[in-house]
Amino acid sequence: MNQSTAQNDQGRIRASIIVCTYNRCELLRKTLQSLVCLSANEYRYEIIVIDNNSDDDPQVVVDDIRRKSGFDIKFCRETRQGLSHARNAGVRLASGEILAFVDDDEEADAEWLNEIVRTYDADKDIACTGGKIIPVFSDGGAPSWYIPELSGFFGGVDNGESICEIIVGEGYLGGGNFSFRKDAITGDEPFNISLGRTGDSFYTGEESELCIQFIQRGLKVYYNPRAITYHDVSAERLTRVHLFKRAFQSGMSDALMDCKRNLDAYGRQRTIRLIKQYGLILLKGMGSLARRTIGCQGHSIVSMLSICRAMGKISGIFFLSKKKRVWKVVGNSD
């Protein structure tokens, strides 16, 4: 949207773009620079930045972008730590009909918001949509061992090249390229505060839970591959420790979401069968690793990360059951 349209159009705000930030000032600058230059000339949109207790000073960045672009970016500090708290704060501030979320280490393609809006315009029953997230290796390009199968461990999302409906268990949307209609949610805190990243952890699942809720209510969730964001992958994210930690914690998040789906459908007794399923995944990963030890390094890493993720899932089931946290989060279905 050009500056004059952003400031002078007195019509309704079609979309609110919410960026939650934590200790990433310089990356946030790139994110906001991409958002103020979106090719959205036919409607108004707003940008909201939520600072979730950063140690650096994101308001300085926001003020600088405001001054240079003429775009009146909203800024708010959410003192309760956690991505879900920050996202909910953005929801409460938003005036748009569509609420779209971009991470503070991403840049949006110029047509990203147009594609999001077009998806909703195509079908009034679409409550939620997201798009492709492409990892971008900012420090010297992708490492020699990188293969496309590793994309998801670097924040990538690719459900193919066609617009498609997402159903539970098949395909997924990434939280860094995620949106929903404001009138599709109930209340002003749609994101479960028991889920989501806190500080430097990688626990996720709050947007997946929201997708499940939409689908259970008979609403549609769609993926549009032309709605593209680019996710920065810095050098520190290429270490084994980082990758294994992310895979393990992603597995624990998967455990909670799988528990929810099974509890909703079957009750507690059958949920324990998930452990057997995860055990089979673990064994499969170990077998795959053994076969590929002498082969492609990238495929070996995929196998090792699959093992870490399965271990996270198994640990998640036992941890959540022991602490009874899972029953608090998903309810007491029998």
Brief summary:
With 334 residues, the chain is an alpha/beta fold. 43% of the residues lie in helices and 19% in strands. The chain has two domains: 236 residues, Spore Coat Polysaccharide Biosynthesis Protein SpsA, Chain A (Alpha-Beta Complex); 90 residues.
Describe the overall structure.
The protein is α/β, with parallel strands linked by helices. It folds into two domains: 3-238, Spore Coat Polysaccharide Biosynthesis Protein SpsA, Chain A, CATH 3.90.550.10; 241-330. It is 43% helix and 19% strand. It has eleven helices and nine strands. Strands 1, 2, 3, 4, 5, 6, 7, 8 and 9 form a nine-stranded mixed β-sheet that branches. α7 packs across α10 (297-323) and α9 runs antiparallel to α10 (297-323). The longest helix has 27 residues, at 297-323. The radius of gyration is 20 Å and the shape is globular. The N and C termini lie far apart (51 Å). 42% of the residues are buried.
